[in-house]
Specification:
CATH architecture of the largest domain: Alpha/alpha barrel
Number of domains: 2
CATH class of the largest domain: Mainly Alpha
Order of helices and strands: HHHHHHHHHHHHHEEHHHHHHEEHH
CATH topology of the largest domain: Glycosyltransferase
Distance between the termini: 10 Å
Largest sheet: 2 strands, antiparallel
Structural class: mainly alpha
Helix content: 40-55%
Number of helices: 21
Strand content: under 5%
Number of strands: 4
Length: 517
């Protein structure tokens, strides 16, 4: 199906919540008829409206210094680019916030993706504005990490027939390099690798030199409309959304033959089998990863299909699975999902040996931090919940440690949260994990689940808004979050013997995004 510039039908598919970093890049694109003014002033207005109390930009309910630093530097660059006198205070307060964030970086275990490339690129662009930024913000240690990443991705040369993961962060390239790129790199939506910041940087370079790209402009205009003046860090993530929603329905106890679910599984199977076999976050950027591939593999097995394991096994590296082939550090959640997939065929000697080695690697990560920290999600509840499902019946001792971790962090309100108060999404993660533990006989006292049910019932009218997923900054995949919350509610209803029948089917509210694929 060709989707080029056909946005209306797919408006809500794979939707990502707006955030400041990518919006700042869109704000820097000049008007095609006058490069001395912004093409989308509403993006600048979004930044003005979303400056935090501490002067920076980023997710307000949790403090992730790395993401706030990147977001704030990008916002400062956007305001400095247009140099409007009325925006001087936004810049000065932003610079003050940068000093605060810089002091916290060493306390955080893992930066967001591409941080080691994005930070030096932003600092380089900010040099000409003579701002009072902290000295050595790009530390010697970070320079070493940058060098390691560069050794993995090579010379940043572009082969239009071979998409690479680094394309997603192509805004790191200097303007002269961006000008060398032609429109063959644009996908059917008009973006580069579905990345809004990269697409904006490309269009900005073109327009500053008397050129233009109508498809890129149409893409940015569309995502601005979706975000009401702000943009998410990419669009669409329709395969990721489809995969995770189905997997959460699997965990909630739905039947794969449900009339709402079966067509979606059929669609996922088609995507999985289409070359290159496996799954990425979007068909618009077919660079597969082990996380989507492993989770999709499990969903297809749930439906009684027999997908090939080869797309997953190519990510194996001695003791764990990489998420991407040119990845610098492995992900805990990607390996949890790989273990779940491997357990579908433990009669295979190879699969069993890999499962054993992945489990030992996961044990090392848990022992090292006394909790699971993941590079793809800010909340440890996300990966810990999924680890219970992967480990129960395989390594019950490790699974019990995960259960204990979740139980110890339940709030008196019955919910869970990483911020100042519990949230619906994180509570849903905890619920799905604890129900898996109960089903495996690892949780006999269900008081925690009863309290969680009360919390979710009291807050059912609220829509989760906290950005907890880690990309370049924090983001929220809207359809995945909605599907998670609904799956937890259904799982609680089933577990606590509430009214249940075939008439309690998957509502359109939860799957209307994926059902349109």
């Amino acid at each position: 199906m060709k989707l080029k510039n056909n946005f209306n039908e797919f408006e809500h598919v794979g939707l990502i919540s707006p955030e400041a970093y990518s919006t700042a890049w869109v704000a820097m694109v000049p008007d095609v008829t006058n490069i001395d003014r912004p093409a989308w002033p509403q993006a600048l207005q979004y930044l003005r409206l979303h400056q935090l109390e501490d002067g920076g930009w980023g997710e307000p309910t949790v403090c992730f210094a790395h993401e706030r630093l990147i977001s704030t530097l990008a916002a400062i660059l956007a305001f400095s680019t247009w140099n409007e006198p009325a925006d001087a205070d936004y810049i000065s307060r932003g610079v003050e916030a940068v000093h605060q964030y810089a002091e916290r970086l060493a306390l955080e275990p893992e930066p967001p993706i591409g941080f080691e490339l994005l930070l030096p690129a932003l600092l380089s662009r900010l040099e000409s504005f003579s701002l009072n930024l902290p000295h050595k913000l790009w530390s010697d240690e970070l320079k070493q990490i940058t060098a390691k990443k560069m050794s993995l991705i090579g010379k940043l040369e572009i082969d239009y027939t071979q998409p690479r993961t680094w394309w997603f962060s192509m805004e790191i390239l200097p303007e002269e390099r961006l000008l060398e790129i032609d429109e063959r790199i644009l996908d059917q939506h008009g973006s580069i690798a579905t990345s809004t910041a990269t697409t904006a940087a490309y269009l900005r370079a073109l327009r500053r030199h008397g050129r233009d790209s109508a498809p890129a402009a149409a893409f940015l205009n569309h995502v601005l409309q979706l975000g009401h003046g702000g943009v998410g860090f990419c669009w669409p993530v329709e395969v990721f959304e489809l995969t995770w929603v189905l997997d959460n329905f699997r965990r909630a106890g739905f039947s794969s033959t449900d009339q709402e679910i079966a067509p979606l599984i059929k669609e996922l199977a088609h995507i999985y089998e289409t070359p290159p076999m496996g799954l990425s976050w979007s068909r618009a950027f077919p660079v597969n990863d082990s996380d989507n591939t492993a989770t999709g593999y499990t969903v297809l097995h749930w439906a009684g299909l027999k997908p090939s394991e080869k797309p997953l096994l190519k990510f194996w590296d001695s003791n764990y699975f990489f998420t991407y082939l040119d990845e610098r550090t492995p992900s805990v959640s990607a390996n949890v999902h790989a273990l779940t997939a491997l357990r579908h065929n433990l009669s295979s000697f190879e699969h069993k040996q890999l499962a054993i080695r992945v489990t030992e690697w996961l044990r090392e990560q848990l022992n090292l931090h006394n909790q699971f920290n993941d590079k793809w999600h800010f909340s440890p509840l996300y990966v810990t919940s999924r680890a219970i499902s992967a480990l129960a019946g395989w390594d019950d001792d490790l699974a019990r440690r995960c259960v204990e971790f979740i139980l110890a962090r339940q709030d008196s309100s019955g919910g869970w949260g990483s911020g100042q108060r519990p949230g619906i999404e994180e509570t849903s993660f905890a619920v799905l994990g604890l129900i898996a533990a109960a089903q495996a006989g690892l949780l006999t006292d269900t008081t925690s689940l009863k309290s969680a049910n009360e919390f979710l019932s009291k807050n059912s009218a609220h829509r989760p808004s906290t950005r907890l997923w880690i990309g370049k900054t924090l983001y929220q995949p809207v359809g995945v979050t909605m599907g998670t919350v609904f799956a937890a509610q259904v799982a609680l209803a089933r577990h606590q013997a509430y009214h249940w029948s075939r008439s309690y089917s998957v509502p359109r509210l939860a799957v209307h995004q994926t059902a349109q694929l």
